[in-house]
Amino acid sequence: MSGERYDPVANPYAPGAGTPPPALVGRDETIEGTEIALRRLRSARTSQHLLITGLRGVGKTVLLAKLASLGEHVGYRVIRVEAVGGDDTLRSLLRQARRIVEAAGGGSAVRRALRSIESVSLTVAGTGAALERQVARPDRDALADVLVDVGKAAVDADVGVMLAIDEAQRLDRHDLRRILAGIHRAGQDGVPLYAVVAGLPNLVGEVAKAATYAERLFTVADLGPLSPRQVADAVTIPAREIGVAWSPAAVERIVDRSDGYPFFVQTWAFHTWNAAVDDPISAGDVDRAAPHAESTLDASFFAARIARIPASEVAYVRALASLGPGPHRSGDVAAAMGKTTPQVAAFRDRLISEGVIYSPRYGWVEFAIPHFDRHVARELPDRP
Ligand SMILES: Nc1ncnc2c1ncn2[C@@H]1O[C@H](COP(=O)(O)OP(=O)(O)OP(=O)(O)O)[C@@H](O)[C@H]1O
Ligand SMILES: [Mg+2]
Q1: Which ligand 1 atom is nearest residue 266's CA?
Q2: CB crowding 320-352: b at 16 or more within 10 Å, else e
């Protein structure tokens, strides 16, 4: 017990969206597997690609970024996009593809790649394709060619291409199919193109629906909560590096409060550090931080999600929350609203496309945001 506060400037924890944690725990296997896959592809061997799934805040974006920098390190040029709905995603993909191709020089592979990029660009509103380049015809399906051709052009420059797509559940279904076709064909043609595709858990189903072969293209890394041991590492390793210790009871309290969800782990550790007065940091310190941790979670993480819910869907969200944690049958949610499943299907579909809920299996729904049911019960308690 020291009674002195820890320096908030030195606080090592990193709650946020895509903010790299001070200790990236529990991902070694995936990182190693990806490095092997990348190196295999560059030595003309085949590899499965990677599909990262998980609920909000489990660390998909952070892992994707880590793998992207690994890719750069082992000789890949990275095309990194976050699917946002509309044509912006594709516009960004094409811009990055063009940059890679232009850097690859002027051979015939490069000319072919520029032509397929142009064909797709002509279908994307507002790309302002240069007039003299309009030798190409508008063709959205050429998106598959873009991936293969960019990969081939990159070979001339002795690099591979990594395609990293975040929030991929938001991709237009047809574009997803085209992208998968490109990845598939690149594999058949021995082109060193590696794809990492991340999104909410229903992405696996979306990918499978897009093409019959698609699920076999990928190894799935389904990110769940961290184990108690991993939470302990995430919390204690960064502190130990700067001479600060956590008591086992304090770590256990963080495990309980966070249920192992990485974003909650970072949030609780961050606020505990700022509120702590004991040395080592104690369970009492975690309790002292509780009002801060809970109010920031309510005001940021959860509020941002609530803000995305159209007024017409609030009743559906309330009904699902009223059934408690875990997945529930769509029919039970409808019943809790006093309606039938078909009557509420449109609400359900819109909430899925907003990434608020997902369907873990046919006829079931669950919040895509951990602990969201509790938050809704707290913040949206009354029926309108
Ligand atoms: N392996 C990990 N170990 C410790 N902390 C982690 C780990 N992965 C992510 N985090 C932390 O968790 C938080 C959320 O990470 P990230 O933004 O990558 O999640 P996400 O799955 O992409 O969430 P969303 O679905 O909302 O985009 C960040 O604060 C990050 O520092
Ligand atoms: Mg993310």
Answers
A1: 29
A2: bbbbeeebbebeebbebbeeeeeebeebbebbb
